[in-house]
Amino acid sequence: MKERKKLKLKKFYFHPITVFLLLILLTIVLSAIFSFFEMQGTYNTVNATTNELEPVLITVENMLNFDGMKFIFSNALRNFISFAPLGTLLLALVGISVAKSTGFIDAFGKRHIFKMKKKNLTFLVLLLATFSSLINELGYAFLIPLAAVFYLMNNRNPMLGIITAFCGVSFGYGISLFVGSMEVDLIPYTAQAAHLIDEEAHIALTSNLFIIIIFSILLSIVGTFVIEKWIAKRVGKYREKDNFERTEELLLLDEETLEQNKIAQEKSEKKGLRYAYITGAIIVIAFIYMIIPGLPNSGMLLDMSEKTYLNQLFGSASYFQDGFTYMMCLFFLGMGLAYGIGAKSIKNDKDIINGCKSTFQDLGELFILIFVASQFISVFRNTNIGTVLTIWCANLIQNLSFSGIPLIVLVIILIALSNLFVTTPALKWSIFAPVVVPALMQANVSPEFSQFLLRAGDSITNGITPLLAGFVIYIGYLNIYNQKKDKPITIHEAIHLLLPYFWVIACTWILLILGWYLIGLPIGPGVYPTL
């Protein structure tokens, strides 16, 4: 008998940029098909004047006709420029690049990160990432590149730092140490929906304060376990290419010279860090002054036309969120310059500019990825496919006669599913609130607790949808630190790395919510899960 030769099929990999291009084409074709078959959905909104439900019909828009093509070509540049994390990322990188080029980040990492225990660093990054969701796309722009650098300083794979930061921001989205813009966006829909059952219902901005604080800590603890137990093993170790070169250079120097160099370096580093910390403190104090109303020339970042402080801080006309991003940039930039002056690591402006080049030299591929992904996200949103699917999920709640715990679980799951296609919390809640809030109120569940279920559903699937703007930064940075340049990390691989975190955190979200509901713990000042 002749031996049959086994043919090995070579695996074929699509670059993420190629995948997003294919997704654009697929979306255009699907929009034409769904539009031809009149795919549509109807949901109810609450009329604020009459307090009555009004139907809204949403149909799938065909992107393969004249108007659709006109939208695609005429909005390409606008889609790229207005892409949510792009401006924040550029500002972040300006500050980080200066801090890194002057040596501040290296000196800080040597003293505070190098000897830190692995699980402590992971917990800290997760907690900071979770808190960062208070301010727009801040966590994706600042923490992902910083986490990569800090994990490398901790002798760990920088890709693990990227995953950790992304998981913290995405799977803990909307929970923090304090209430933020999400409350301002969601409460109007919650209140209008609650008035269908109780015209006197009032939803306070702090109604979810207790539960978001506790959840942010608990999810960070659970997340630390998942990262260290499973994901760290999947990612593996990282080896810098220049390690051997550094070792050879060190061997050529005698011990006395090394000791003298070390003493001089430590002295200059201490002085530089002292300058940097003082500068950082001044910037923080200045920022705090800008958000305190009533003091001479204070309140620069507040919307003083609003009555309550939280609305002044997080209202749509407030400068706080964009101002915070810029202040973070100045924070790193200022500390970096102060360190460079104190440690004498910079002599002139050319040293700074030349040092910043290394931060931006590997970002060409990332910017191309952002451009292509921004087109896909824009085209998909304009088709209304995601909105129609979200409407179907909301209407399913009306058609199923669930109550109590089964209804709570159903709401979380359906919101999580719809979040795969519509990642904007306010848009989802405008569709779900008129259905979910009255249904749960009739089951003796408070509207404030119903609103928290939106956070849960959002967070559970945030990290595994390519329609999330922050996902593009995540996969872009994975490929920046990917050592196998001939084999880029694909979208499938990037999501596969997150799956242990996704499953465990999803179960944790649901179990914690059910436990909170059954025990009846307060979710905010004077607010409970039940009416």
Number of strands: 2
N- and C-termini, Cα separation: 78 Å
Instruction: Estimate the global geometry from the Cα principal axes.
Output: globular
Percent of residues in helices: 55-70%
Mean pLDDT across the residues is: 88
Strand order of the largest sheet: 1-2
Largest sheet descriptor: 2 strands, antiparallel
Total number of distinct structural domains: 1
Order of helices and strands: HEEHHHHHHHHHHHHHHHHHHHHH
The assigned structural class equals mainly alpha
- Which residue ranges are poorly predicted, with pLDDT under 50 across at least 5 consecutive positions? 242-251
Per DSSP, what share of the residues sits in E-state strands of 2 or more residues? under 5%
Radius of gyration: 25 Å
Counting DSSP H or I runs of 4 or more residues, the number of helices is: 22
Blueprint (SSEs and pairs):
Layout: H1 16-36, E1 40-46, E2 53-59, H2 66-74, H3 76-81, H4 84-101, H5 104-112, H6 118-132, H7 138-153, H8 158-170, H9 181-194, H10 209-235, H11 243-251, H12 255-290, H13 309-314, H14 320-343, H15 349-360, H16 364-383, H17 385-399, H18 404-419, H19 425-442, H20 447-462, H21 469-480, H22 491-519
Antiparallel strand pairs: 1-2
Helix pairs in contact: 1-16, 4-7, 4-14, 4-15, 6-7, 6-8, 6-10, 7-8, 7-21, 8-10, 8-21, 9-19, 9-20, 10-22, 12-14, 16-21, 17-18, 17-19, 18-19, 18-20, 19-20, 20-22
